[in-house]
Structure formats: structure tokens, C-alpha cells
Amino acid sequence: MSKEFDLIIFGNGVAAFSAAVKASEVTSQGASIAMIGTGPLGGTCMNVGCAPSKYLLEASHQIYLPGHPKMRGLPSTKIEHDFSSIMEGLRSYVDHTRKTKFVDMLQNYPNVTVYDGLARFVDSRTVQITDQDGKVKDEITAPNVLIATGSHPTVPNIEGLMETGFLTSDSIWNIGSLPESIAIIGGGAIGLEIGQALLHFGSKVTIIEALDIILPQSEPEIGQALMLRLQQEGMNFYLGARVSSVGKESNGHKYIEFITHKGNEKIEVSEIIVATGRQPNTSNLNLEAAGVKTDGRGLIVTDARMKTTSSGIYAAGDCVSKTMFLETLAVRESIVAVGNMFGESAEINYMFAAWAVFTYPQVAGVGMTEKEFSKLKGSCSCRTSSLANTIYASITGETDGIIKITIDPETNKIVGMHIFAPNATDLIIEGAYSVRLGLTYDDIVASGRIFPSYSEGVKLGAQLFIRDVSKASCYVE
């Protein structure tokens, strides 16, 4: 006989854990919850995503930046490092944090039962738990189901790629030595973050990107500024490039052949990293049996309440059909889903979701770009401010930053903000509040700032709607 629960969660990552905590809180731990997943607790973000990548980036910045000071009188200082030891530290950090934030946390929720296995629908209320070979281990039922199975790296169909071998954002954390040279197929956030980190450690890094720009989700000025900064650091780029084949040289190195507007090109490297995106873990869930529809990419279709096409079944995280895939967004989606399951009323609004790229300087954005809002409304108004206009940037030497603000010209309300700056991940919160609360550029101008600070750049960007800030004192409001 099937064991009955109040909620079944497919997955054991951040969306799954957030859902389990939320359901426990709103029911005072009265809800019986089953969480089904394989692999380490914490999913992509904890084990192969946010946590290890930011650890690697921070270590690489501490090695690189002292050797490239921007202030007069500071000598270039070479920082000796042991890459193998750094990677051991990274893995140790991930293990420790997984234990404290996920494994140990479960002890506080005795109403949550964790199953090690794969979840598969029998019908919309019945779920089988199987092992990796498909053998049924258990069968459970619940009136509510949340699908939060995450995603895995996409591997493009490139001649010779599988035979040659490659790394992904899932497997790179196991390397022990630094490759002398690396080609990264993909110029999105994952490729750029890993690429700059390895560049700062001393690898020769080449980005091969199919589009003519990097970071297409951001404003083109910001993508161009980041690429210029990375080129100045020594990173090579091939944009508008289509990889045709991959193979091994007689010396043990690997080669990549690709086509650009210049014709056929070929480079030789020590290692290849594939960073062409991720795809959802939905193909083996037997969604058809539960009446859950997916889009053409295998992503689950939901409404604003995170409901799928089947009553009582919700979805959250990287398996959901949308355009933005973020750990923080996965958490929010799971909170919205569980709230609606247990009597609350909530909806997701992707317009308010801030995103970031943790290169140095960082890139962050929220809301619409100039192109997106113009396409929606036919026109918009925007201003682009250089971080060089701030006193603090002129002190630190970080003058190539950019802050771009887009407004609705009918209301003067902020509809988008995109930032390229050393601490863009902190500055963008002002943009997130502005978009969410419907603030105008006057509201930003009227807000106080710490002087001197990078945050002045946001205020100066807003002031551009009313004056030329290059001709005004830094104290003018």
C-alpha cells in the first residue's frame, strides 16, 4: 500500500529545501513532506554552481588584483599560489557548507522524509521512487506535488567532442591542476565567470561564442565594456563562431575548428570547457501520466502561481519554462508554489528578479533593457552614466564602470537598471526596489547617498534625466 503524504517534492536542491521549509512553517510542521532526489543535497547551486564558482572567483581575484594595482604608488605584487590546494579548499568548503546548510538543517524538520532515488509519476497523485536502474523502491501519494528537479549542462552535438573529452560547469570542480590553456565554448555568465577565474590563476583563456555579443540579457554597452576589460586582462574572444569539430593533436593537446565571418579557424588548447547552457531534468519523470505539459525545450509550463497544467501539481526552479534561471528565483518560485498549495495567494513576477554575473567588475541587472521596453511600448527613455563620474571610482581607479537606467517616458518610473561595477551585485538592489515599487528617477535623486561611494553612480545616472552631470558638482541634487 502506498504511503500518504501532504506534499511530495521532486528534487533535493535549493528550491526543494525552500519548499519543505515553507510548507513546514505554514503548517507548524503539521504537513508530512516527502523529498525525493539523488546525489548530494543542495543540488546544482550548492555543489556545482553558485558556491564553488564564487569561491574560485574570489580566490582568483585575490591573486590577480594585487598584481594589477590601479592607484599611484602601489607596486605590482605577485601572489604565489597553489592551485591544487585552492581546489582542495573549494571542495572542503562545499562539503562543510552542504552539511551545515542542508544536511544538519533537516534535523530541525522531523516532518520531512528524504528518499534517495528518482521520482516518477504513476498518475497525478501517485509517485514511484526508483533506483538508477529503474527498480521500484517505494510508492507514495499526496494531494500536492512540487517538481523541482533542476537541470544539467547541455552538450552540443559537435563532431569529435565526446571522443576528445571536455569539462562542464558540473565537472570542472574535480580538477587538481591548472590547464595551461583553455577554450570555453559559450560566452554566457557561466563561461565568463569560470573563464576569468582561470585567467586570473594563469591560464590562457579563449571564449568561442555563437552570438555576435556576450551577455545578451544585458545592455549591449555593458557586454561590450566587460569584453574589453577581459581582453585587456588577456582573454581572447571569437564571436559569431560556429564550432565544426573537436579533436586531439599528437602532442596530447586538443584542437577546436570553427567558422567565423573570416572563414575557417583552428586553435590548440590543453583543455576544453563546454558552457553552452543547461537543460531540464524532466525527461524521465513520466509527466504525461500526470497531465503535466512541457514546452519545446522540455521545460514545465506553469502560470504565475507556479501551477502546472495538472491540478495540485506545481513546479519551481530550472525545470520551469521561462527566460531567466537563477537560484534566488528558484527559491521564490518554490515559496509562491507552496503558499498557493496551503491557502495563501501569491504570484511570481519575473520583472522584479535581479540577476548578476560575478566577474570583476561585476555585472547585474533588473527589469527591462532599452530594446525590450521599446519593443513593448514603442518608445522609452534611458540614460547611461560612466562610473568615472563618481569621486570614489576616480579614487580607486575603477572608472570603466557603467550604470544604465531605463524609464517609462509617460510616467518617469524606472523599468530597468543595468550595472557594470566592482560591487554591482550590491548596487542592483536599488534597481530592484525601484522597479518593484514603481519609483521614478526623481525618487532616486532625492535619496541620500554615502559620500564617496559607488552608489553615487546610481544617483548620477538618475540625474542625467534632468542635467549633464559632467558639468555639475558632485554635491548637486
Describe this structure in words.
The chain has helices at 14-26, 43-47, 50-64, 83-103, 161-164, 189-201, 220-233, 287-290, 327-341, 370-377, 391-396, 424-437, 441-445, 456-463, and strands spanning 3-4, 7-10, 33-37, 112-116, 118-121, 126-130, 136-141, 144-147, 151-153, 181-185, 204-208, 236-238, 242-248, 254-260, 263-269, 271-274, 278-280, 313-315, 355-357, 362-367, 381-386, 402-408, 413-421. The protein is α/β, with parallel strands linked by helices. The strands form 6 sheets. A 5-stranded parallel sheet has the order 4-3-2-8-18, with helices on one face. A 5-stranded antiparallel sheet has the order 19-20-23-22-21, sandwiched between helices. It has a 4-stranded mixed sheet with strand order 1-7-6-5. The N and C termini lie far apart (71 Å). The mean pLDDT is 95. Keywords: FAD, Flavoprotein, Metal-binding. Residues 354-459 form the Pyridine nucleotide-disulphide oxidoreductase dimerisation domain.
The number of helical segments is 14
Counted beta strands: 23
CATH homologous superfamily label of the largest domain = FAD/NAD(P)-binding domain
Strand content: 15-25%
Helix content: 25-40%
Ends apart, CA distance between termini? 71 Å
The main sheet comes to: 5 strands, parallel
What is the correct CATH architecture of the largest domain?
3-Layer(bba) Sandwich
